[in-house]
Amino acid sequence: QLQLVESGGGLVQPGGSLRLSCAASGFRLDYYAIGWFRQVPGKEREGVSCISSFGGSTNYADSVKGRFTISRDNAKNTVYLQMNSLKPEDTAVYYCARKTGVMAVCGSRWSSWSDFGSWGQGSQVTVSS
């Protein structure tokens, strides 16, 4: 059974760090492009980062470039989002998702959530002093 499970969220002070994990089961995660999205109540889901299949290209939203890093550990079938220098505006529920299509790249539509067909349950990240 295909499943994505996020973990690693929590409460952190501004300037702090968190690492989110997205563990996959039921499929080989490195065969797919995997994205991280976030959502705040009342706002549309926002693309944060994406990593193409087979650890290829990566993409980042301008708001997180230089602070967040996406990576994957194929042996653990897990994708990570390392978040440094966190700001209060990073507060959101973070989701990982699998882009539709085997051996896909993130491409120019990497932040279009409608191109991602399988989603985790989300992990709350709160940045506050």
Shape: globular
What would you report as the Rg, rounded to the nearest angstrom?
A: 13 Å
Number of DSSP E strands: 11
Secondary structure tally, helices: 0
**Uncertain ranges:** none
What's the pLDDT, averaged over the residues? Answer: 95
Tell me the strand percentage band: over 45%
Order of helices and strands: EEEEEEEEEEE
Helix content: under 10%
Largest sheet: 7 strands, mixed
Straight-line distance between termini: 40 Å
Give the arrangement of secondary structure elements:
Layout: E1 3-7, E2 10-12, E3 18-25, E4 34-39, E5 46-51, E6 58-60, E7 68-73, E8 78-83, E9 92-99, E10 116-119, E11 123-127
Parallel strand pairs: 2-11
Antiparallel strand pairs: 1-3, 3-8, 4-5, 4-9, 5-6, 7-8, 9-10, 9-11
How would you describe this structure to a colleague?
Strands 2, 4, 5, 6, 9, 10 and 11 form a 7-stranded mixed beta sheet that branches. Strands 1-3-8-7 form a 4-stranded antiparallel beta sheet, with no helix packed on it. Helix content is 0%, strand content 47%. β7 and β8 form a beta hairpin. With 129 residues, it is mainly beta. The chain is built from no helices and 11 strands. It starts with a strand and ends with a strand. The chain has strands at 3-7, 10-12, 18-25, 34-39, 46-51, 58-60, 68-73, 78-83, 92-99, 116-119, 123-127. The model has no long low-confidence stretch (mean pLDDT 95).
